[in-house]
Specification:
The protein has 203 residues and is an all-alpha fold. The protein has one domain. 89% of the residues lie in helices and 0% in strands. It is built from four helices and no strands. The chain has helices at 2-101, 106-116, 131-172, 176-202. The chain is rod-shaped, with a radius of gyration of 45 Å. The protein starts with a helix and ends with a helix. Residues 18-148 form the TRIM8/14/16/25/29/45/65 coiled-coil region domain. Residues 9-100 form a coiled coil. Keywords: Coiled coil. Pfam families: TRIM_CC (PF25600). This is TRIM8/14/16/25/29/45/65 coiled-coil region domain-containing protein.
């Protein structure tokens, strides 16, 4: 009867130990679930920061593009004004030549030709025809390079932020080594308890 009582007590102890092991597993599972919630919050925060960075970069790029556009338009307007003045001067000369061609007096005609003199030499009269195309291409390439540089910096900083927070996340989640160590310890305790039970039953 005494052995039966001891066996019952041991069985209860074993069941309690097994239940405690299951409780520990459930607690670990709950911790893992909470870690998943932490991951979600971390991702949400990272996305929010990334969106803010994108908005800030967009604003900076808009200002830079605006400055480049202002510079380019100013340059083209300056060239346009110069060409318009040259056209007006040439037309004025053309009108004077038309009037002079109507002159019948040879002496007056020669005097008029001397008064006209040579055609004015304009500053950019020998400029290459493709100069404007080169300017536009250079400005376009400058904007493209600036955009690519800002994009690389933006994604690089975002990756660094995520990687810097990754170790904290790993510390919060349950590691495989930790689980193996804890379950091995619990298994050793249960094994010793069973050995004690066998010794008592033999006695």
């Amino acid at each position: 009867m005494q052995r039966r009582l001891e066996g019952t007590k041991q069985e209860i102890a074993n069941r309690v130990l097994d239940s405690e092991r299951k409780m520990a597993e459930l607690r670990e599972a709950a911790d893992s679930i909470r870690a998943c919630d932490d991951i979600e919050r971390l991702c949400a925060e990272s996305i929010r920061l990334f969106v803010r960075s994108v908005e800030r970069k967009r604003s900076e790029m808009s200002e830079k593009v605006g400055e480049a556009e202002k510079s380019g338009v100013g340059w083209t307007n300056s060239r346009l004004g110069q060409v318009q003045r040259e056209v007006l001067e040439l037309r004025r000369r053309e009108d004077e030549l038309d009037q002079l061609s109507l002159t019948e007096d040879p002496i007056q005609f020669l005097q008029g030709c001397r008064a006209l003199g040579d055609l004015p030499v304009f500053t950019d009269s020998h400029a290459r025809p493709d100069m404007l195309t080169e300017f536009v291409t250079a400005q376009t390439d400058k904007l493209k390079n600036m955009c690519n540089k800002e994009k690389r910096e933006l994604f690089s900083h975002s990756e660094e932020d995520l990687l810097s927070k990754k170790p904290t996340l790993c510390e919060e989640t349950t590691s495989r080594t930790y689980l193996l160590t804890k379950y091995k310890s619990m298994h050793d305790v249960k094994k010793k308890s069973l050995e004690c039970s066998e010794v008592q039953n033999k006695s």
